[in-house]
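Structure ticket #2291
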Amino acid sequence: MSRSIKLGHCVCDPRKPCPCPLFREKNVCTCAGERVEPDSVVQDVKLTDYVRSAGCASKIGQKDLREVLSLLPRITDPRLVVGTATADDAGVFRLSPTLTVVQTVDVFTPGVDEPYLFGKIAACNSLSDVYAMGGRPVTALSIIGFPIEKLPGTIMAEIIRGGMAVLSEAETVLLGGHSINDEEIKFGFAVTGVLECEEPITNAGALPGDLLVFTKPLGTGIISFAHQIGKASPESVKASTDSMTSLNRIASETMMQRQANACTDVTGFGFLGHLSNIVCESGVSAEIWADALPVLPGAIDYARAGMFPGACEKNGDYSAAITEFDQDVPEEIRTVMFDAQTSGGLLIALPADQATLAVEDLRAAGIEQAAIIGRITERSKGRIIVRSKAGGRFIPASPKQREKRKTMNERKKIDATDESACCAHGSETPDKALGMFKDFMGTAMGPGAVDVVTKELVAVALGLAVNCVPCSRIHIKKALDMGISPPELEEAAAIAVAFAGCRAFMLWSQLKGELL
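Resolution: structure written out below.
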């Protein structure tokens, strides 16, 4: 200490004078290893008092991060399956033909005041990146920044203990870690997982016709901010905490079982920021239904009152460039969609016929707010359209509804032979010509410059216009199974009637009575 006094500056922190205010007030020099007596430490420590931005709102914004990463050299190692180039959730590296690892690191500031809960949230958040890639986490290393000279070590131990509890739940082993004496509290993990499928589920595989499933409610960043300034209700804080301390393990397992094409976990860049990664990397456009988005209680009210962190605006600077909102989407809903999430849900692109099944699986497993919140519409350079309402669009029939239709069709004694011959849908004939025609139809009706939903509506209109009974019946049934709504089929039929007249009208009237 004598050297510090002689210099007039603390040798441990040159920003501070020596003697420092703590020494003048309490005759304690932390640089000499002395500590404030426990009874002098604030008893009810609030972790959020020791941070500037809470939770994932503390992370560097998407726009700034992209600019920095663009300055770095590209990694071309052939063993690298997924790296930084695609802004994905985790890195994927093939160690051998039979072993592929998934690795990630995630560190952020507390968005809650209780040390144990903060540790649990940090672990859930870190593990989520591995789950988003279809991986199974196996080991972790902890990383913590903590003001050990200001706060008792018992608080630091509680943070780590909370993280260990979640790692144990996830069957992930803590190998060790690293600590830093930091004025601001930070905590997280570097996690290593193994790939559970042949290829990772990345943010680059979404296809036109896919439906988007989201597994957790939005609003954690807004609620954390409202809590920091003493405005959040206990109900909001509890709902947010329950969401943030829930693993995405079941959601990951479900998306793999249901053949997901793409996935990302929604965290610091907000819902639209992470969706923008999907649409840009997949080369598609997405339509989001604002009224279908699950939102935590209180979050919309806080956003309407202006209680939201600066991260919402930072996230908007990036994703708003490719996002178009319907005029009647409220400003507070837009804010929620830009809100930086901590330990958020998985945003999954699934084939239309699997999306409803996935949501039913998730809700049966206790993930009650899982929902279909939009769809992938077409090929593009990356674009998002936010509609105010879903309007009943493109939600596939549930298994019960499909069974009801199947029973109805059996009662109507639909001629399966005629149907399989028309357009070669479902045909098992060995005839080479019909086989080639079936291949052609598969290509013509597959995703391309025009999305598969639009193609199916066109097929319905053409089938009615040329008065092909089995063809019309097949495409109407397929459209319903894809989730195309009856009002949309009505419009396609109206176009057919406009071009083909009475015969198309009579056929539509007949089939509508049978199938809708």
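Closing remark: The chain is about 45% helix and 15% strand.
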